[in-house]
Amino acid sequence: MYTVLPEDRSKHLGEELQGCWDKEVLRAKTDARKPSLTKAIIKCYWRSYLVLGIVTFIEEVIKIIQPIFLGKIIDYFEKYDPTDSAALYETYGYAFVLTACTLILAILHHLYFYHVQCAGMRLRVAMCHMIYRKALRLSNVAMGKTTTGQIVNLLSNDVNKFDQVTIFLHFLWAGPLQAIAVTGLLWMEIGISCLAGMAVLVILLPLQSCFGKLFSYFRSKTATFTDIRIRTMNEVITGIRIIKMYAWEKSFAELITSFRRKEIAKILRSSYLRGMNLASFFIASKIIVFVTFTTYVLLGNVITASRVFVAMTLYGAVRVTVTLFFPSAIERVSEAVVSIRRIQNFLLLDEISQHDPQLPLNDGKMIVHVEDFSAFWDKASETPTLRGLSFTVRPRELLAVVGPVGAGKSSLLSAVLGELPPSQGLVTVHGKIAYVSQQPWVFSGTVRSNILFGKKYEKERYEKVIKACALRKDLQLLENGDLTVIGDRGTTLSGGQKARVNLARAVYQDADIYLLDDPLSAVDAEVSRHLFELCICQTLHEKITILVTHQLQYLKAASQILIVKDGEMVQKGTYTEFLKSGVDFGSLLKKENEETEQSPVPETPTLRNRTFSESSVWSQQSSRPSLKDGTPEGQDTENAQVTLSEESRSEGNIGLKAYKNYFTAGAHWLIIIFLILLNIIAQVAYILQDWWLSYWANEQSALNVTVNGKENVTEKLDLNWYLGIYSGLTVATVLFGIVRALLVFYVLVNSSQTLHNRMFESILKAPVLFFDRNPIGRILNRFSKDIGHMDDLLPLTFLDFIQSFLQVIGVMGVAVAVIPWISLPLILLIIIFFVLRRYFLETSRDVKRLESTTRSPVFSHLSSSLQGLWTIRAYKAEERFQELFDAHQDLHSEAWFLFLTTSRWFAVRLDAICAIFVTVIAFGSLILAETLDAGQVGLALSYALTLMGMFQWCVRQSAEVENMMISVERVIEYTDLEKEAPWEYQKRPPPSWPHEGVIVFDNVNFTYSLDGPLVLKHLTALIKSGEKVGIVGRTGAGKSSLISALFRLSEPEGKIWIDKILTTEVGLHDLRKKMSIIPQEPVLFTGTMRKNLDPFNEHTDEELWDALKEVQLKEAVEDLPGKMDTELAEAGSNFSVGQRQLVCLARAILRKNRILIIDEATANVDLRTDELIQKKIREKFAHCTVLTIAHRLNTIIDSDKIMVLDSGRLKEYDEPYVLLQNRDSLFYKMVQQLGKAEAAALTETAKQV
Fold first, then answer.
1. Dihedral, CA of residue 609, residue 611, residue 612 and residue 617, to nearest 10
2. Distance (Å, whole) CA 146 – CA 156
3. Among the listed residues 248, 1157, 1159, the one whose alpha carbon sits nearest the alpha carbon of residue 628
4. DSSP conformation class of 248
5. Residue 711: DSSP 8-state
């Protein structure tokens, strides 16, 4: 890529505009008005933009001159006289001017476009620079008024309006001017009847805008349905394991289908509107010409070829400007005005006061002194955030600040930072500040650059910092050590690691004053102690340190302690003083203790020494999105990790097969053949209408020639006959045009509907493995983005392409029909064109991809800067970040520049091809003057002139269609996934099966994927009717896999019998409906409570209420506004986890099956609920076979039998007491690990069973 020109540098442009804006703000202050961003923009850019206006003017003038010369050429043919060589040479002159005009237009147009788009780019870049600069200076009050999302939105959406507005802005004056000029010229040509044509144009404009309004109305309606569908889809994919185990697929299929049906109905409506709009654009010129000439003839005038075609070409020129450019100019300008207003409001927000609390060290004394300090975050509120605080910290002192949540601890630090302006009192800070925020903040870059933060790298010091912050081990785990890229595009660090990187950054800065906002709570106890002792107490020993903390055990080490509550200082002193006066720390921090201890601590003292910080274990789990079932089991997660296949991206062109599938999905092939015929007929009618006019004019001139001198004989033509046929053809054109547009939309939207249904069906029937291998986002993307393209953009682009393509073919056809030998140069031009197109498409795809990849760093840099705003300001790194932002911008500008130039390169060459075509026709017709009549030449030439913009548009749309067909391909790819076994077989099991509930495993092997490792090996076991069996084993021993095998989530090898019927011989639904499961992660679906309990409406209301009463949820549900028919929030988030677990229990109770499987159902429930669940299971399922997977041994110690699994093999299977007698058994060892007291209690319980 080329580097950006110095005058296009982000920094240069931004500062230029910023200068204009600052002047404008000052002027506005003196005039006591609101500063206007528009004025600043105009002042900055008007000169360069005015020059482009002159170009526009020249271009429009040429467009108007062209038809006049065309008329002169046709005139020569009308008065054709082989002997008159002077006239011939004169006409050659005209032909030369005509082709010269065409060439000049071809070049000028693209020069203009290129420069205008560059101007747009400059404006956009300058704006982004200003927005970012402002964002770094926002005061906290201002941050309250806007959100990160809003600022990113300004940068992603609003600024892009400038790219488009500059293109069309000049048409605001060029459009009306051109319309007036054309009307004048037409008046000279055909008199008053030109007004009739213009009237049609004027009527069409509001019609189109009406369509636009209606369309946006439908659009918003559709959007709500689409949102609902995608949300439901998201839940289906997230909860697919549960849906499969419950065999609820059909209910969800119905749900989604009904949403989709509503959505499609709306989409069809808006599509028909769009079709009408496109068709009206296509037909408009026909209607205008028809109205004009009908009026002209009826007023008793005589038609001549030159008049007809001059009028047609003039109308063509003005129509594009008036119906396309002018309205879009108005639309773009109004959008831009809104955007400018939003940006202006943002630029006028309060900035942080630039006075600096960090005074330089003049006398070498570092100190933080706060005296009687009060402040408000929000000026409006009565209660101050901080009230009357006073404290002093000197070097070698550690001030610990403690207090409940929301007491104002972080506000105290921000006051020292100077982020929180005082309403009274004063803050004196001598020395350099380093700040560690509560939410750890990293920006995208290497770990090392995150720690250095702009300082020089000194190895020794760096190593020391790493050691003090306990990062050495973590850095060894990362693949490139401290040069691993983290942040948006790199590996993600866990919360604990981020917190330590943040701390390391502060320590490396070697500042004088350290403000630490609770850096210890994100890491686990062991690491936390290490950080406190090594980092805070040793490394920062010499410094002034203010530590906000919740960890009371460290208060002993603090030189003074400040207790804050509700913004006021409760007490200040040392630890020993506090102990003497008998302060109960616990009660002071009551409020926060309740908040931090939400997760119940298991009563068993199982503290293993963890090397990993807690949060990094968490982040590992969360980075494996779709392993929903069981604990992420060692083996199968590994295997799923390996096989997360790369998303297939089809390279190169789209096969014909995709197009064939796409169309046949929409309609029967007979209809498609009819559609193709219809398209051809419509185009033929379109051309015939023009041809008839030229034929009419020829007949007329033939009559004029024969009767020389006696002009009154002209009236011989039968007006009714000619006009009648002309009207007929016009009506046919209009009708066929509209019908074709609607039919194309109907077929394509239909095919989108069909493909969506097929894709959804195949997703529901896909085995669970598929969902483990593909992350949720990837599957959802097909349903949102790709289907969205097929609903919305593809039909439109397709129709547009078909129309313009047929036009181009029509033009060529007419030219060849008039002058047959034109086909020779034509073929040559077509070959050149195809070579160019292939060459261009390959490049443009990559350039487009480049452009979008270079764009994202700009946004991510902004949002990460906003998150770390305080940190950046505390370290005085604004300048550096501004430069980084400018560098990102310049990179994007490079890509954008390539994008502009490549598309213009192609367009110039296309238009050159068209210009050559026009030249060939003009001179060819003059050479063959004898054989041709005026009408034919007029038709061929005026058609060739329309080719200029049309051809290019056609090619561009064809490229668009191809790009969007990628979406279709991706959807089709998901319509034939491998399927799991059928849901039902012909031979169905007896309805009462299984009435005993005996389960036999006979030499079962199980893998999740064909090539994956075995997760169960040679498992043989017998579970008798009504037995309660507990299944235990380490993580990854295959406990959950046992259940997967039972439910046939993947096909097991070996035999599993339930009541003498082989599980592999029944349909999946028949099998899965007969076993109830209480899953590990309780899943509720958006919808009513009733739907969640009983999606197929198989039970009465009483049964449902009884079930709810059994699990003590009756009151909770009765309190809901619509009782059982209340819509639950997304994924049931208005219920706690425990309540959701109870709903799952209620589902199992309702099913009344003989086999119940509990998968660690009690792992995330408090003890009361746990006891309740256990009790219910003993009561309700006394006569059933129950398999329980458990981590807490006390839940399964009273089972009839216990199955101990280890790495996929069945190690022990016997009664719990028997197993405990055997000192060598795995189970005995597991119980002993819990500690003496607990083990004794468990053994006692086992004895009584």
1. -40
2. 16
3. 1159
4. -
5. G
Cis peptide before 395 (omega within 30 of 0): no
Q: CB within 8 A of 811, min separation 6: which ones?
A: 943, 944, 946, 947, 950
Q: Residue 629 pLDDT > 70, yes or no?
A: no
For residue 1073 the two structure tokens come to 């409906």
- pLDDT per position as a tens digit, 973-1025: 888 888 887 877 877 877 777 778 888 888 888 887 777 778 888 888 888 88
Structure tokens at 339: 């955007």
Predicted pLDDT at 613: 38
- Residue 548 to residues 33, 570, 574: CA-CA distances in angstroms? 45, 15, 15
Long-range pairs of 1143-1146 with CB within 8 A, sequence gap ≥ 24: 1143/1082, 1143/1084, 1143/1089, 1143/1092, 1143/1093, 1143/1111, 1143/1113, 1144/1078, 1144/1079, 1144/1082, 1144/1083, 1145/1078, 1145/1111, 1145/1173, 1145/1176, 1145/1177, 1146/1093, 1146/1107, 1146/1108, 1146/1110, 1146/1111, 1146/1113
CB 174 within 8 A of CB 321: yes
Token pair of 530 as six digits: 């290490």
Question: Which residue type does 338 have?
Answer: V
Give the H/E segment covering residue 740. helix 719-764
**Cα 949 from Cα 932, distance rounded (Å):** 27
pLDDT in tens, 869-902: 888 888 888 888 999 899 989 999 998 899 888 8
Average pLDDT over residues 911-918: 88
**Cα–Cα distance, 660 to 1108 (Å, whole number):** 53
Mean predicted confidence (pLDDT) in 110-136 = 90
Question: Does residue 385 contact residue 377 with C-beta atoms inside 8 Å?
Answer: yes
Tens-digit pLDDT profile for residues 389-418: 888 888 888 888 888 777 788 888 888 888
C-alpha distances out from residue 375 to 19, 217, 546, 652, 1158, Å: 34, 48, 19, 63, 55
Residue showing tokens 């080719």 = 947
